Amino acid sequence: MSDSDKRTISLPVLGEVSRRTALKAGGATLGLAAFAAAVSPLAGLRGRLSAQELMQRHYKELSADDKAKIFERLENEAKERYGADVKIKDPKAIPGVRYGYAINLSVCNGNGACMEACHRENNHDRSTNQSYIRVFEMPIGTTDFKHGDSTYTHDVPREGKYYLPVQCFQCENPPCVDVCPVEATWQEEDGIVVVDYNWCIGCRYCQAACPYHARRFNWKEPQIPAEEVNPDQGYLSNRIRPAGVVEKCHFCLHRTREGRQPACLEACPTGARIFGNLLDPESEIRTVLRTKRVFVLKEELGARPTLFYFFD
Amino acid sequence: MAIQAQQARPGHLVSYPRFLWRSLVMATDGSLAFYAWMTMLTAVALVGANAWANQVASGMIVTNMTDHVSWGLYIANFTFMVGVAAGGVMMVIPGYLYRNKEMHDVVIIGELLAIAAIVMCLLFVTVDLGRPDRFWHLIPGLGRFNFPISMLTWDVIVLNGYLLLNLHICGYLLYIRYLGKKPEPRWYVPFVMISIVWAVSIHTVTAFLFSGLGGRPFWKSALLAPQFLASAFVAGPAFLILTMFILRRIGGVVISDRPIQLLVQIIRVTVLINLLMLCSKLFTEFYTGGAYSKHAIYLFFGWEGHNALVPWIWTAIVFNLIAAVLFLLPAAMRSVRVVSIACVLAFVGLWIEKGMGLIVPGFVPSTLSEMVEYVPNLTEWQVSAGIWAFGLMIYTVALKIAIPIMRGEERFIAPVEVADDTPHEPPADQPPAGEASATDQTQADPPERDSGGESGRSP
Amino acid sequence: MMRGRVLIPIVVLAALLMSIGLVRIMAGAGASPRSEFLAATMSTETVPDETPRWLVEISLPDGPPRVVTDRVDSMGRAVTVSCASCHSNFDANTSRRSADEPPMAFHQGLTFQHGNLSCVTCHNPDDYNALRLADGTRIEYRQVMESCAQCHAPQARDYERGLHGGMTGFWDRTKGPQKRKSCIDCHDPHAPKFPSMTPTFKPLDRFLEPTRPGD
Predict the structure, then answer these.
(1) Which residue from C minimizes the CA distance to A96?
(2) C135-147 pLDDT, tens per residue?
(3) Can you tell me the ipTM of this complex?
(4) HEC string of A237-277?
């Protein structure tokens, strides 16, 4: 009782130091120590996570000066962690260009060279054979993926089958962009949907929103042998991604914005892939749209892909 | 809370810190049972924290999530807890809107549950982030907030708004009761009214997170938001009934039958609405069939030999049906046992139905019809259990502070020299030691019951 | 009194919530599922473009191929000879048809599976260093694609438009050249069916079990 009497008139901060309080303080200290021990694995991140990286602003808010510094930092990190000398550049969308892609399904034989080229070009994790492209073997007569298979390993092409490569369609109305809570992914002037790997928080809402399984998450830090690192890197495209962020096909913008063909197209031994500028009426891609009966996947969803399929 | 600062007179400069200090003391004083309970929760929470730290350090590869099933147990728990938070409103509506006296006396139990549940929601989202270090990108003004386009930004707003509303309401009421004064309606009634609408909004917006995804036919249903609400208004009240039973049974807290009966009556309606919506959903999925039904087929019957979710969903259906029958029995108005069993079954059943039974089948088969199944692994269970334990700690502590104050057992006594308008009468009977420990046990118990349910859910 | 005052924020909030839904719906309704690029292909507008363009290089044979014989030289390598070195002495077997009996010794390893053609449908019996068209016109080996185009007009047309055949280099020829394969880079003229291939690369998805029943 005397305790409570004292309590009522004492100032809060000068509360009585009873045995109980001391015990509580001890308990709290113990608890804090236990908590510190519990989260100690986070210490492993020290050295991997610089203050500059933590404070880095969104891509669109960076000045040329900021970018130069960031690219240098990333190049140093690539050297440090992967032992590779890389060059990071940031090519801008070419005015008057909107990219389109078409795949000739009469010709594609499912050999998967595009997947492998993507894997190498884009510095994907070697241990998971990650790639932005998946090729499905489909029975002739259906476009329902229920009957498709991406895991085939037999010789191709097989009788009665056709092959359907799926990658990001760079939709005109991309559902993945709308859902991003932090604007870490957006559509560029040339139609390519890009991700700022240093802004993405890794909530994976965009993966849920994409109707085409086009987005990939970096479940761990990619492993790439130094000699296999592609040194020709774009900040918004194929630079080595950090763990915990989402990535996706970017039509090899570090190549295509310099006028070159995407890696998957060059690798295709069947010539099934046609790439070009949708705004140029003379371009090959426009000729496909004009002369072939093209279709897109899941057109009813209204995402309006700019990668088209056709049969000869 | 800001409002209290505005109206601060000299007295509050003394009494408010005093209130906070006493809250801290009350939160940490207790019986052996209380300490045991809190120690256990702390241990579980620490295991969770450790699992999460490992997940951050090694990458989310340590979970069983994949590019095919990119959300799992975390988001499942998140979705369910939003419902529990919203469910607390079923005490607020009769308590404030219909001036139900008995409900009004215990309504704070529901409001505190909302606080604990929302904190859990925020934690579940955080542990699901691949880059928690970039959390600040989500803060309006600091980062880039894709508002109003992204539904997730709406969710950030409504969840934090709901948290603030309830913190304000509870904080204000407790502080005023602590001062021994009568709460002024203008400082809390408008917020209560907003919180009622807000409770609906948090679950509607959370449903829109999913139903707004055109590429996921399993979720793209106009029924999703109403279904979320109906199930929330079962799960929330069910948890509150259990809490009140426990508070009452252990003694120390007098709660009449009326609020419990009212909640049972509410559940009698909502549980049927929920079942009706389930039937409606099942009919649309299965009567015509077609490609979009493959998720439901996978969930209920398995697909090409993949049937990881089949036992889960049928458990949920059976639990929900039994719970519905029990709630509808006349005995539900009298028998503590019947209602308790019904509440536990409903709570667990809905946890499955809205968690594993809703989030995971949306991803299986994938958008390209690939069959990658998902079962949470140890890391995910550890992290989730840790968050549950932390939420229960918050709820226990909050109740421990709130109940003595609301019962008038804990009062502010103004120091003589700064006495102004604060009441001068001596403190209402200080709780004798025995009663205090009874109260402690009271608060120690509700989560206990719940944790039983949780471990029951773990495979 | 109290209720009237609290009703206002409720109504405002409800209106706000409804407006979200409306905005979403309207945004959806405005979006036509038809691509504007598909529509654009119907229009006749052309953009005058005077920018000089790089050439398209097509990999074409320089001259007549060498034929592998059954002889080996001192190093163990197969001896190759020009067509004319034998056929100036021997008359060609003009009756030989595709997919007939195995080719004779001098055409080692040659599979001949090309419709119902005979050797001299394409090879010029009057000059084995050249080819010939169906009307007998002599063409050089470099012009082999003209020979192919006689029968495979749709492919030739697509090739001309850039829709058939592999390529590397630049899509934008104002920036760099394009290298294109010729018909015979991918299609062996004696057995033009594209060969069967073995996939070399598969993504390793965790938990995605290989293949479906019946495969």
Answers:
(1) C47
(2) 999 999 999 999 9
(3) 0.91
(4) CCCCCCCCCEEECCCCHHHHCCCECCHHHHHCCCCCEEEEE
